[in-house]
Amino acid sequence: MHCPFCRNSDSRVIDSRTSDDGSAIRRRRQCPECQKRFTTIETASLMITKRSGVTEPFSRDKIVSGVRKACQGRPVTDADLALLAQQVEEALRATGAASIEAQDIGLAILEPLRNLDHVAFMRFASVYQAWDSLEDFETAIKSLRG
User: Using CA atoms, how far apart are residues 66 and 72, in angstroms rounded to an integer?
Assistant: First the structure.
């Protein structure tokens, strides 16, 4: 870690604390050269591999925007969507993998969305799983009722 003041390539960790949600580590550092202190925040990166092979960093905002379309006109708040995105991220990070397939994100969204709103679940699942017949919808409705 380079000192932001003198660009020295060495620094000493004085204090480490985890963030409130446990997703990041805040480190207080001191430069041995200029003696100034600074703070760094460390997070574990989670990369998403798309079908095309392109990789990009995980984004909760993309989950919220995708699920928001399925929730249009439904009694679902922005706080509900933020919580759903957090649950999905926690489930993906719990796998311990540094890279996740985009398909796995969709699967991770289905269960929390099912618990949040059945109609939104049906909308999202029908597009995500490419349902093309009434039997697909009937099967999903039976599983929701059961």
Answer: 11
What's the pLDDT at 21?
67
Q: Which residue is it, tokens 């703070």?
A: 39
In tens, the pLDDT along 80-108 reads: 999 999 999 989 988 888 899 998 999 89
For 104-113, the pLDDT digits (tens) are: 999 899 999 9
Tokens of 85: 């995105």
The residue among 124, 120, 94, 82 whose CA lies nearest residue 107 is 124
Residue 43 C-beta-side C-alpha neighbours within 13 Å: 12
Dihedral sign, Cα of residue 91, residue 94, residue 95, residue 101: positive
Is 81 exposed, middle or buried (CB count within 10 Å of its CB: 0-12, 13-18, 19+)? buried
